[in-house]
Write a structure and sequence with these properties.
The chain is mostly helical. The relative contact order is 0.06.
Length: about 60
């Protein structure tokens, strides 16, 4: 099995699991949709979290 085939199978399994979970738990799907809509209003919070992650792990490394 080539790495490309393996990646394709993993992606197909991931998509199948997500679809199955969405069908089994429709309330979770509604929650995720609501969260996706709210990202439009909270984009600045995402930027602040990304900056914090960069400052913690990116800026703390010593230069070579």
């Amino acid at each position: 099995m080539t790495p490309r085939q393996r990646a394709g199978i993993q992606l197909a399994v991931l998509v199948a699991v997500i679809v199955t979970l969405c069908l089994l738990f429709p309330s979770v799907l509604r929650f995720v949709e609501l969260g996706a809509r709210e990202i439009r209003y909270l984009w600045w919070l995402i930027l602040i979290v990304a900056l914090a992650v960069w400052l913690i792990w990116g800026a703390s490394r010593k230069p070579r």
